[in-house]
Each structure stands twice: as C-alpha cells, then as structure tokens.
Amino acid sequence: MPVAPARSQFSKREANRGAWTSEEDQKLARVIETHGPRRWKLVAAKAGLNRCGKSCRLRWLNYLRPNIKRGNISDQEEDLILRLHKLLGNRWSLIAGRLPGRTDNEIKNYWNSHLSKKIKQKENQSKFPERDQSQDLKNSTAAMHSLAGDNGGTSRKDEEMKPDFSGDGFLDSFNEGPLNLEWMSRFLEMDESWFSFA
DNA sequence: AATTTGCCCAACCGCAGACTC
DNA sequence: GGAGTCTGCGGTTGGGCAAAT
C-alpha cells in the first residue's frame, strides 16, 4: 500500500535532528511516565520536542527505557546472538527479544561491527587453510568456537539444509516473552534438525 | 603536532503491516 | 471497504573518537 504523505502539523524540515540532549531526554521521559510509551506523535507534541514521533520512539526504546543493559556484550550473549542469527537471520528485533535489556539496534550494530567480521574471518580460514591461523585462533572467542562446529554434531551441512523459520507459527511461539540466557543457550544447542518438525 | 584513516554507535530513512476512522 | 495514519523493522548514514601515519 502506498503511504500518503503525512498531513500532520509536524514539519520534518523544521524538526530537531541529531543527538539528543539530556534536557530532551528528561522531557520525553516525563511525558512517557504520564502517557505511556505509545501514541508517539502525541508524546512528541506533549513533550514540546521538535522531533517526530518516530525519533522519540527510537530514543525511548534504545536509550531511555528502563532495564536497558548498556556496555559490553558478554561471551554468553555473543554466543546467543550467533546462534539466533544462524536460525533467524537478520531478524534483529526477534534476536533482541531473547536478550533481556538489549535492543535490536545494539545487536544490529554489534553484529555489523564485530560478528560479521569474525564470521568472514572464519570463512576465509576455511577457504584458505594453508594460511597461518595461529594468531587468528588466539583472538577468536569461545563463541566462535561453538559456531565453527565444535558443538558436537549440531552443525549444519550447508545453508540449503536450513529449515525455514519465517513461518508465523514458529516465530509467534518464539516470541513469547524473554527467557533466561542459560536456558536459551541450552535450547539452541539442541540438534537444530528438531526444528524442522516444529 | 597535525593529518588521515578506520571503527563504533546513535540516529535517520524508507518500507510494509496494523490500526483507526 | 478504503483511505489515511501510526508503528515497528531492517538498512544505512554520519559524527565523534582513537589509533595510525
């Protein structure tokens, strides 16, 4: 469906852009406290911020929301991201839903800046096994070891064998609230072929 | 010390589905 | 039922910073 241009009073051209100030954060948080994190257009207007609702939503979800976990991604979390990405692909919001306190944006960024490189590196290693791998091996993490296939028979022969998890039923049941990391990790260690029956 | 390069991450954009009137 | 609006998602961009030259 083609999206018609919004006819709201809000003008994109005149909107504040760029980094949020702490004052803006406070205003936004105050309004969300009373109105809740929905009706973002209204929230933006009530807060007196010259920003679009979309921008307010993003700021709330990625920064101001309570229980946001900031800082380094742990090995366990990294392992989980790798496994979930293997199963789900670039479904960042779904992956983030399995990592309490982490946002889809954060995971996407982490993937693009760290994990995609590691995987490329790993692929190169398997393509060119003659090259000296000792340094790379030193740098690789425990999570990468598990991805590389030392997970006791859980590795897949190839991508074509991957079952399609995009089915609504699977994802619906997969998206029912956060689970703890350890449980999730163990869950993912199960033979992935099991999912083809789900 | 100054400049360049590369990386990280917050924020923006476009699209599509859901919702409302 | 359809048009308009809202919301959520994934891809991309660009500013700031640190390391390298």
UniProtKB/TrEMBL annotation:
GO molecular function: transcription cis-regulatory region binding
Any one of the GO CC terms: nucleus
Domain HTH myb-type as annotated: residue spans: 12-64, 65-119
Keyword terms, alphabetized: DNA-binding, Nucleus, Repeat
Compartments in which it is found: Nucleus
SMART domains given in the database record: SANT
GO biological process: cell differentiation; regulation of DNA-templated transcription
Compositional bias of kind Basic and acidic residues: 155-165
Superkingdom of origin organism: Eukaryota
Family matches, as InterPro entries: Homeodomain-like_sf, Myb_dom, Myb_TF_plants, SANT/Myb
PROSITE patterns: HTH_MYB, MYB_LIKE
Pfam families tied to this protein: Myb_DNA-binding
Domain Myb-like residue range list: 12-64, 65-115
Span list, region Disordered: 1-21, 145-165
Protein name in UniProt: Transcription factor MYB4-like
Species in which this protein is naturally found: Rhodamnia argentea
Gene from which this protein is expressed: LOC115729624
